Amino acid sequence: MAVISRGFGARRRESTPDLPPGQFLTTDFPVLSAGPTPEVDTAEWEFLIRTETGDEKKWSWDELQALPQETIDTDIHCVTRWSKLGTTWRGVSLDTLFAEVETSYDFTMVHSYGGYTTNLPLEDLLDGKAWIATEFDGEPLEPEHGGPARLLVPHLYFWKSAKWVRGIVMHGDDDPGFWEQNGYHTYGDPWQEQRYW
């Protein structure tokens, strides 16, 4: 069951033409989850990338924090039709994490603490398009918004920015993840309104 935060307020796209079609502008940050918020201790948190050969690159919380951090100013768009403009995040670029990963596969499956998965083409994670975000608006990322760390892929609908991220597994095919198996679009471009199959 999805959980939506109280106090959700929005404006229609007609008054904000830079919104993708079908979206409403909100100044809130609605909370939508498929289940309970997992409790993830940073002392036990780990992020990994696993290739098709079984090779793994792993980072502890401290190791992730020691990598170059970037500030990301971006808009975010949820498939449930809300958009929040001008958000500020801080995190590690996936370009940094994939720098020493060798793979011939073109697709990924992102895994989260709590069992959630979502599929993404590798090209949508590289070239400055995606981050492991640990801060929002200058503060540590709250658990309800995916803390301690979430994937941030702002050019796609926000379900692709998997909360409570713990790893990426390379795939040879664009296999659907949790939401995609339940009717959401396999790609999720908000400007094309790719909400559902």
From TrEMBL:
<dbReference type="InterPro" id="IPR000572">
    <property type="entry name" value="OxRdtase_Mopterin-bd_dom"/>
</dbReference>
<dbReference type="InterPro" id="IPR036374">
    <property type="entry name" value="OxRdtase_Mopterin-bd_sf"/>
</dbReference>
<dbReference type="Pfam" id="PF00174">
    <property type="entry name" value="Oxidored_molyb"/>
</dbReference>
<feature type="domain" description="Oxidoreductase molybdopterin-binding">
    <location>
        <begin position="35"/>
        <end position="179"/>
    </location>
</feature>
<feature type="region of interest" description="Disordered">
    <location>
        <begin position="1"/>
        <end position="35"/>
    </location>
</feature>
<protein>
    <submittedName>
        <fullName>DMSO/TMAO reductase YedYZ, molybdopterin-dependent catalytic subunit</fullName>
    </submittedName>
</protein>
